[in-house]
Amino acid sequence: MPNIAVIGAQWGDEGKGKVIDLLSEHFDVVARFQGGPNAGHTVTIGTTRHALHHVPSGVFRPRVRVVIGNGTVIDLARLLEELERLRASGVETDGRLFVSDRAHVILPLMKQLDAIAEADPLHRIGTTQRGIGPTYEAKAARWGVRMADLADLDHLESRVARLLAGPAGRRLGENGSPLPEPAVVAQEAHALWKQLAPRVVDTTLLLNDWIDEGLRVLFEGAQGTLLDVDHGTYPYVTSSNTMAGAVCAGLGVSPRLIEGVIGVFKAYSTRVGEGPMPTELDDGPDGIGERLRRRGNEYGTTTGRPRRCGWFDGVAGRYAQRINRFDAACVLLLDVLDPFDEIRVAIGYRDAGIDVRSVPASAAQAGRIEPIYRSFAGWKSDTTGVRRWQDLPAAARAYLEGLEEIVGAEVALAGVGPERSQVLIRPGTWLARQLNLG
Ligand code: GDP
Ligand code: IMO
Ligand code: MG
User: Fold this and answer.
1) What global pTM score does this model have?
2) Is 307 strand, coil or helix?
3) Which among 60, 45, 48, 49 has a CA at the least distance from the CA of 92?
4) What residue spans of 5-72 are helical by DSSP H?
5) Nearest to residue 318, comparing CAs of 347, 297, 292?
6) In terms of CB atoms within 10 Å, which of 106, 170, 251, 434 comes out highest?
């Protein structure tokens, strides 16, 4: 298996955790390159549902090493809690989970700043309030605190003082929030760092050494392409680059080392938080949107918020394909569509009667878009027990082939339930060949 990136192809929550858990059997290392505890990746093994926020989804394979890269942002207390929860469920990470010394730290005041922005109707975009935006903002402004800054208490205190003397402190002051003492902030962070210290290393060096030794690496994406800070529906996006191109900066690996890119889609669309979603179905308690939400259990893994639901957006899917060039598309949650008579896919956009070829840069325009739909016949049968591609109902296969044509990426995997085994690999595809499945 070559080194591959697994990327969310919509607005997040496509089922990346499940795909990565499945594929990690064929890898030695799984490495996260961006995002932080805004992510919620679910892995269901048997009847146990694990929710991961920082820790890469390869962690359930005891042989696999996991890396939290320099492009991520880390909430120290939450990461420690996550490791404790894993340990309690029998998953040991000592000696095989590594955190970059260049990753930025989400100090508690970053979460306060996130909450302050979200309380202001002028700024609100519906973030996860995990401090993601303020932490990446400080990184870009060069006021950030990195994992490597946590070791020396005096140095750390001076970094925090510098941060509080800038716009972060001013914003807290304007809000009437008491300014935290730099010494207190530093001591708390330093105490948490002590528990993580053996894991904090130069992960770029580690990864490149491993790749040179011939170990196989899976690069794990979080969020989704339409939440990318450059290419997503700005400003309703997260604060990092989520697309495949971000792997290199977020881990310190050359683009020449990415040998394949896999896109994860769900069979329809969801989005949490605000921002344009052309195919959203806000059609009441008995409507299709609510049926999708109920059947797909579409409530956020991180915040519990109901996700907005709608038909598959083929224009956005093609856009994701264009900027990531997926070798394989995975379509998860196909089973959610089992009972529908008719299934629709947006194949075009129109704004005031004029065709719009791709996802527009302007959120105002994206908010006005009227989708043009293509209709597919439903299969109206239970797919949750199907394990071979050829056993899918013909109409389900026709739907997946339709998505392949609309998006322009080979559909190679379908998910028919949350459990590890509820997955089908399509024979004859690039992915099947990589997995030696013919
Ligand atoms: P991620 O953030 O991309 O890893 O996705 P999430 O874990 O946030 O959300 C995906 C949800 O769908 C989780 O609750 C998964 O357990 C569930 N899931 C994944 N694949 C399937 C599938 O094929 N069918 C069904 N019904 N649920 C799935
Ligand atoms: P996974 O990895 C879905 C959304 C938030 C909000 C916007 C900005 O599980 O797919 P942020 O807290 O990042 O500043 O919020 O991005 N968002 C996600 N939506 N899945 C995620 O992660 C998300 N991470 C952030 O809802 O709209
Ligand atoms: Mg998620």
Assistant:
1) 0.98
2) coil
3) 60
4) 16-23
5) 347
6) 106
pLDDT digits (tens, 9 = 90+) for 122-144: 999 999 999 999 999 999 999 99
- The number of residues making up the chain comes to 438
In tens, the pLDDT along 287-322 reads 999 999 999 999 987 788 899 999 999 999 999 999
CA distance 96 to 98: 6
Measured between alpha carbons, how far is 288 from 13 in angstroms, rounded to an integer?
Answer: 19
Ligand 3 centroid to 41 CA: how many Å? Answer: 5
Q: In a 10 Å sphere around its CB, with 0-12 CB exposed, 13-18 middle and 19+ buried, how is residue 228 labelled? A: buried
Q: Which residue has the CA at smallest separation from atom 5 of ligand 2?
A: 127
For ligand 1, is residue 221 a contact (CB within 6 Å)? no
Please give the span between the terminal C-alpha atoms of the chain, in angstroms, as a whole number.
13
Tokens of 107: 């100090």
Closest approach atom of ligand 2 to CA 273: 27
- Residue 4 parent element (H or E): strand 4-8
Residue % of the chain over a pLDDT of 70:
100
Tell whether ligand 1 has an atom less than 6 A from the beta carbon of residue 426: no
| Contacts (Cβ under 8 Å, ≥6 apart) of 175 | 116
Neighbour count for residue 162 (Cβ, 10 Å): 15
